[in-house]
Write a sequence for this structure.
């Protein structure tokens, strides 16, 4: 199915780009405009991004945008429970590819916490991100299994994390791949975003999105939790 043929719920929009570079540039301009607007209205802006591999060109394009970076608070939709010097750290990815040059002026809120175990780390992260919501701009990604943030299909805590009234801001999650121990923002924090964006690349992910738009269990394709409210989807082949 082509992206233009998708039957999207009200409030969900899809934008197709020619390639990853065009997607990264368009997304960077879209995000920077929304951050500027937030700063004009409220004096500061909150940006929450995702990790993984695909956001690197977007981070580099966003770092080039002229913004009063000192008024931007940046954090993550999810993190692998690994220290920042670990190759799998999302924080390291953001610091390396986004928070350089003028963008280094932005304040970064870490999800990663040193603790005895994942549950304790999640409790510390929960307190650390108390000031995050409402988020101005959220950029989600999606895995081939329909996960977004670290909301993995059938993960312990998934049901709790997806409750609209979940009292926790951060919960521990288990991913099917290494690093398996994850920390994720929960639905109410993610859903507080004034501009929620989903950036995905490739036919396989478009097929997953197509499946997620059909009726079915949220636990099977957790991205479904974000398809019944406003969302701007950016896709490229
Ligand atoms: O830390 C992570 O892995 C994520 O934040 C995760 O939710 C990511 O967005 C998807 O796995 C897609 O990753 P890619 O866009 O790199 O395929």
């Amino acid at each position: 199915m082509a992206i233009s043929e998708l039957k999207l719920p009200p409030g969900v929009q899809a934008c197709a780009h020619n390639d990853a570079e065009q997607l990264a540039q368009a997304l960077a301009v879209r995000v920077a405009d929304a951050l500027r607007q937030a700063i004009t209205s409220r004096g500061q802006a909150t940006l929450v991004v995702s990790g993984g591999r695909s956001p690197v060109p977007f981070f580099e394009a966003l770092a080039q945008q002229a913004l009063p970076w000192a008024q931007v608070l940046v954090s993550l939709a999810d993190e692998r429970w690994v220290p920042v010097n670990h190759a799998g750290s999302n924080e390291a990815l953001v610091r390396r590819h986004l928070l350089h040059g003028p963008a280094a002026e932005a304040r970064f809120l870490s999800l990663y916490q040193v603790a005895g175990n994942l549950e304790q780390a999640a409790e510390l992260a929960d307190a650390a991100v108390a000031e995050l919501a409402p988020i101005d701009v959220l950029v989600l990604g999606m895995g081939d299994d329909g996960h977004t943030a670290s909301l993995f299909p059938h993960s312990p805590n998934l049901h709790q994390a997806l409750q609209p009234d979940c009292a926790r801001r951060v919960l521990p999650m288990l991913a099917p791949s290494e690093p398996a121990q994850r920390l994720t923002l929960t639905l109410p924090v993610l859903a507080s975003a004034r501009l929620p964006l989903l950036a995905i690349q490739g036919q396989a992910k478009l097929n997953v999105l197509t499946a997620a738009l059909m009726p079915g269990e949220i636990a099977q394709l957790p991205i479904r939790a974000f398809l019944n409210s406003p969302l701007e989807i950016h896709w490229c082949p």
